[in-house]
């Protein structure tokens, strides 16, 4: 039986934060979510602005078992100057604020996990001379040739985000940077729902060259890995929250079509994706950058993935989506 932990989730009212809060609360933990716009939930919710040290939330840090920080504006937008500033500030400023608050604690949290992203790693190629990116041998992005300049922005965000995380002096608090890939869940508003919707409309064919890698993680494994990290005090530093089997875009979408029972999907060339991204006010990097992250730290410490391979994960997610739609 898992011992009850006191867990605080700043910025935990978004889609993934809600999934995690629900999982941890259902597992019997004492969960509090900090949000700019608190909503009613089975767990405790409190207001914070991510900018100001206020006793209403800083007192919650004392004696905690874990803080899981998840603040951050969505990157599903055009990278205008204003949006870039908001994306960066919404991650860095609350992270620095939390660091200042933990430094002041008389009884600081045992563990601080801070959201990060597998976009930290460079664009990978699908060839015999390239390799997966893990926590030990992975290479930061930003110096690749032949990729759009806008791709460097997401790498800069990841770099500044983690720099802010490690900037605080919190020697009594274990730190883990969660380099997450796309979390797939059947919940409305998530990336899986978008992908499944495209497949059902017949638009789930190969995107761009099709050999760019897709890194992903099933929502049950995402939550299970967080719980695993809380219970393993020997783990610290960066941890890739990603399934152990990334796969090329063409295979990823083929498996999703098969799971959804859709035999055909129209492919989209790069120029078509550029037009679509412009019209949808987003960036093609989310589709075309090759992310080949693998979870070496989790595997070395014995974490067992329920869904290590995408075909099984896709079938489960499609089934759960259908059930959710019937409710």
TrEMBL record:
This is DUF1731 domain-containing protein. SUPFAM superfamilies: NAD(P)-binding Rossmann-fold domains (SSF51735). Residues 7-234 form the NAD-dependent epimerase/dehydratase domain. Signal peptide: none annotated. Residues 270-317 form the DUF1731 domain. Belongs to the NAD(P)-dependent epimerase/dehydratase family. SDR39U1 subfamily. The lineage of its organism: Bacteria, Pseudomonadati, Acidobacteriota, Terriglobia, Terriglobales. It comes from Granulicella rosea. InterPro entries: DUF1731 (IPR013549), Epimerase_deHydtase (IPR001509), NAD(P)-bd_dom_sf (IPR036291), SDR39U1 (IPR010099). Residues 125-147 are annotated as: Disordered.
